[in-house]
Write a structure and sequence with these properties.
This protein is mostly helical and about 190 residues long. The protein has helices at about 5-15, 20-45, 55-65, 75-100, 125-140, 140-150, 155-165, 165-185, and strands spanning about 110, 120-125. It has one domain. About 70% of the residues lie in helices and about 5% in strands. A two-stranded antiparallel ribbon has the order 1-2.
């Protein structure tokens, strides 16, 4: 049996070389994992969210294939970027919905995954997006840790492998960044 991780990396390399067949084969191979990411992202949304996991996957994938400047490195890189695209899709969706409905009210989501053991913090997704943009300006790695852990559902070890740093560094960044976000979001 072949290693799916190696298959994904090989397909990404073929895609980088312009092999269009690799792109469709890649989607078939990673669809289940992308669905898991999409479900993780939607879990943080309101319960009556109208965007389904399949629609989120497809919208994010369309944005991924439109990224001609990305030099795909490996499966962790691919899933990290896919998770970031899903967050952007949801943020754009919330902004459009906010402009149309009730005078621009933002969608509220729970930061429960970040507040382990405490009462969940409810915040507006627009505020989270602004906080992450600000954090990215201050420290890009810490912003990536949040995206990979909170939105991407990666473990400390997976995020460390993706970022090319130690698990201890990611654990420290995660701890500091959770506190920073809670302060920013009024938790």
């Amino acid at each position: 049996m072949s290693d799916p991780s190696g298959d994904v990396t090989e397909l990404l390399e073929a895609w980088n070389r312009g092999d269009e067949g690799a792109e469709s084969t890649l989607l078939a191979l990673v669809y289940a994992e992308l669905r898991g990411l999409a479900i993780g992202h939607l879990r943080t949304e309101r319960s009556d969210h109208t965007l389904e996991p399949a629609a989120l996957i497809h919208e994010a994938y369309l944005r991924l294939v439109d990224q001609s400047r990305i030099e795909w490195q490996n499966r962790h890189h691919f899933f990290g970027i896919a998770s970031r695209m899903m967050r952007r899709v949801l943020t754009d969706y919330a902004r459009r919905r906010g402009r149309v409905k009730r005078g621009g009210e933002w969608v509220r989501v729970s930061l429960e995954a970040v507040t382990t053991g405490k009462k969940p913090v409810i915040f507006e997704i627009g505020r989270l997006d602004h906080a992450l943009v600000e954090l990215r300006d201050l420290d890009e790695r810490k912003a990536s840790v949040v995206e990979l852990r909170f939105f991407g559902g990666m473990t400390i070890e997976e995020a460390a492998a993706f970022l090319g740093c130690s698990s201890a560094t990611v654990r420290r960044d995660w701890t500091v960044t959770k506190a920073w976000l809670l302060d920013k979001l009024g938790g």
